[in-house]
Amino acid sequence: MDTAPPLSPTARSTVRRGAERARTDRTELHAVLDAGLVGHLGVVLDGSPVVLPTGYGRRGDTLYLHGSTGAATLRAAAAGVPVCFTVTHVDGVVYARSAFHHSMNYRCAVVHGVARRVTDPGERLLGLEALTEQLAPGSWAATRQPDRRELAATALLALDLTEASLKVRTGPPGDDERDLAAPVWAGVLPLRTVVGEPEPCPLLPDGAPVPARIRDRGV
Amino acid sequence: MDTAPPLSPTARSTVRRGAERARTDRTELHAVLDAGLVGHLGVVLDGSPVVLPTGYGRRGDTLYLHGSTGAATLRAAAAGVPVCFTVTHVDGVVYARSAFHHSMNYRCAVVHGVARRVTDPGERLLGLEALTEQLAPGSWAATRQPDRRELAATALLALDLTEASLKVRTGPPGDDERDLAAPVWAGVLPLRTVVGEPEPCPLLPDGAPVPARIRDRGV
């Protein structure tokens, strides 16, 4: 049984446009985050927004983000300023009978907050494990873990899921009554991400088997 | 022949991390933008960044973004403040022999600038056409175009591709020499987006044929 508390929107995280699409189930928020590979991290640098794709991982109600210690956005985010982190899945193109009602089906999680730089060695390893497993399930145990130099080169941030919102659109187009008789196809073209054939590193020995964790992976 | 001028990075749009991944070909920038369905628009609201998924379309070196006239981010972006608009494609998961060298193959376009609210009726129609065609090729001509009320409810912004950067990662992992002999599979698991079976609107007549522009669409 999932006993996660519901999302409690603040003024900033309240979904205003299309409020009927807002969800308040924390389990659903987790599922949307867990299904993603990258989010888009927004920070303010010299008064301007900067939005960059960023890998992440989740442990409970904490998101871990990482990047090079040299990255300006990560340095800014680590300095205790507000950030926004958004994960979006596009699930389908909604074809309507009017241009105006064309839309997308999607799931979108938006997290506002102040990120905390993770310095505790134990939490750093747990955070990097979450990040690695989000990107490549099974890889943390199967590959060489970070050494001291690699850890020193990696900035790890924690962002709590306290101020988060979730917006989901599903279903057919919302055409106007007046357009329903138009001889135009309307409906949804679903989209999904699939994996292709694994491409071995050229430096692998010939015929090195692809492990099941990679071969059978869905995304 | 493509005579587009190369990208001329400013301080803000110069790729600093992983500079070997920076591209300066404007044609390649256009291709990355044209291949996307949503970008992530960043604006600063009350001192905090807000990042939301946003549909777009391109005409030449102008991106058009739209949304409800009631959306706070769109209103902010229309007020002449700096925005950032980022389009990312994740092309593969890069499995390395060490956790540290795990990565993603991706294409990412980042556009900085001040958006302009489009008020000229002719440009508004061209911009909405570009947006509709990006989402649903062929739909602008095939469906009812916006009437006066719908146009009044739609905020349309133009963002010039003057200050843009493009970053691309391709290829196998960049493992350390010391790890190459490890008995660990390394390589790339390619990812791509595919379309599923069209799902007709329940209000369509039975057996309404799916037009080729939708049935045969790739993304």
TrEMBL record, chains A, B:
InterPro entries noted in UniProt: Pyridox_Oxase-rel, Split_barrel_FMN-bd
Region (Disordered): 1-23
Any matching Pfam family: Pyridox_ox_2
Residues passing through the membrane, by range: none
The name this protein goes by in its record: Nitroimidazol reductase NimA, pyridoxamine 5'-phosphate oxidase superfamily
Source species: Geodermatophilus poikilotrophus
